[in-house]
C-alpha cells in the first residue's frame, strides 16, 4: 500500500522565524526564578524503539541509519520495550519525537499508552510517529491519529519520505525558555532533562548543590570491551544496595560535526531501565578524546541534582586518549578486552598510567589469564597501587563484577 504523504505540523511545537540566529552561548549561574527565551540549533534528536513482545527490529535498524545519514541524532532503545520504558527514555533524553516500529499487533493501544504517559509526565510536546508494514491498516492509522499520533508510514514508503517528514515536523529550531531552577527537591526527570538541554546549548542554569554528596566514576576503554554491559551490571548492584539510591549515567557515542549519531547504549541495557536511573546520551559532535564539549556542564549539573552516583561512559577510545581529568571524576575505570594484541601494545595505552582500576572484561575468553598477568606487570611499573579486576559482565552474578562494584562504591 502506498503511504499517505500529506504532512501536518506536530502538536504543540513552537516554531521560530526562519533565519533567527541563536544568541551567543552564555552561562547563567544564578538561581533566577524567571525563564529566558532561547533558540536552540542543536540537531534533531529522536528516540526509536520496538514495542514489548515484538522482536521485529529489521525495519527500524534500516530507518535509524537513514535518519543518521541525514544529520539526525537517534537514541535507539531496542526491541521488546514497554510504553513506560519508552516514555522514561524519551523524557530523560529530551527528544523531539518518538518513532515506534510495531509488527506484532496491539499498536492502537500501545501508541495510545505512550501518548497518555507522555501527557502524564508533562511531556505532551514530544511527538509520536511510526510504522509497521502491513500490520497497521489504514483504518487503524486513522484511529491512532485521532489519539494523537503524528504520522503512520505504510509498507512501500521510501525512506526519503520519512526523513522529509521528520525534518519538516520536528526540525524547526526549538524556541524554548531556559528553565528556571525549581526550588523544590528532588527535581523531576523532565526538569533535569530540560536543564541538561539548556546546558548542552550553552545556557546552563546551575541549581544549588544538593545536600547529598555525589560520587562520579568515569568508565573508558576501547570499543567492544563491554563497557555498557558492565555499567548495566553495576547499576543492578547499585539499585540493590538502597531502595532510595539514585544513579545517573552520562553516555557518549561518536559523531562528526554536523552529522547524525546512533546513540545506542540504552539498547543493550536491561537493569538501567528503572525510574531510579537517569540516562543521558551525548554525541561527541566531532570532539576527539572520548567526551563531548557538553560533558562538563552536563556533569556539573547532574552532580547537583541529588544523585548518589554518576557514571560517565566515554566512546570507545584509542591508545592516546585520556578523557578524564581529576576535576571531572573521582575515580577512573579502564575496561579492556583480553585480546589487545601483544605485550608491547600495553606500553602504548596511556590510560594504563592513570586509571584507578583496570578491568579485563570478557575474561572467560581464551588468553584472558595471560592478559591479566601482563597487565598486572605493566601496572606494577607505575608504583601507584592501581587495582586490576577480571570480569565477565555478560554473566549474571559474576564475582568479578561484584568485586568491581565494591571498589567503585567505596
Ligand atoms: C522479516 C519478518 C520477520 C523476521 C524479523 C527479523 C527482524 N529482526 O526484524 C523474523 C523471521 C525473525 C520474524 C519472526 C516473526 N514474525 Co515476522 N515478519 C517479517 C516480515 C516478513 C517483514 C517485516 C519487515 O521487516 N519488513 C521490512 C520493512 C523495512 O518494510 P515494511 O514492513 O513494509 O515497513 C515499511 C513502513 O511500515 C515503515 N516502517 C516500519 N516501521 C517503522 C518505524 C518508523 C519509526 C517509521 C518512520 C517507519 C516505519 O518503513 C518501511 C519502509 O517502507 C513480516 C511480513 C510483512 N511482509 O510485513 C512478518 C510479520 C510481521 N511477522 C509475523 C509473525 C507472526 C512473526 C512471528 C510471531 C512468527 C513466529 N510464529 O515465530 C515471529 C515473531 C518474532 C518476534 N520476536 O517478534 C506476522 C505478524 C502478524 C500479526 N501482527 O498479526 C507478519 C505480518 C507475517 C504474517 N503475515 O503473518 N518475522
Description:
With 410 residues, the protein is α/β, with parallel strands linked by helices. The chain has two domains: 39-175, Rossmann fold (3-Layer(aba) Sandwich); 208-409, Rossmann fold (3-Layer(aba) Sandwich), CATH 3.40.50. It has twelve helices and 15 strands. The strands form three sheets. The protein has a seven-stranded parallel β-sheet with strand order 11-9-12-8-13-14-15, with helices on both faces. The protein has a six-stranded parallel β-sheet with strand order 6-5-4-2-3-10, with helices on both faces. It is globular and about 70 Å long. The chain starts with 35 loop residues before the first strand and ends with a helix. Mean pLDDT is 86; it is low at 1-34. Cobalamin binds at residues 48, 54-60, 62-63, 99, 101, 103-105, 129-135, 153-157, 162.
Write out key terms for the chains shown.
single chain, 410 residues, alpha/beta, Rossmann fold, seven-stranded parallel beta sheet, six-stranded parallel beta sheet, 12 helices, 31% helix, 18% strand, binds cobalamin
CATH architecture of the largest domain: 3-Layer(aba) Sandwich
The CATH superfamily of the largest domain bears the name: P-loop containing nucleotide triphosphate hydrolases
Order of helices and strands: EEHEHEHEHEHEHEHEEEHEEHHEHEH
Question: Largest sheet, if any?
Answer: 7 strands, parallel
**Distinct bound molecules:** cobalamin
Within the CATH hierarchy, at the fold level, what is the topology of the largest domain?
Rossmann fold
Structural class: alpha/beta
Distance between the termini: 59 Å
| Count of alpha/pi helices | 12
Q: What is the highest CATH level, the class of the largest domain?
A: Alpha Beta
- How helix-rich are the residues, as a percent range? 25-40%
How many structural domains does the protein architecture include?
2
* Average pLDDT number: 86
Query: Got a strand count?
Result: 15
- What's the gyration radius in Å? 22 Å
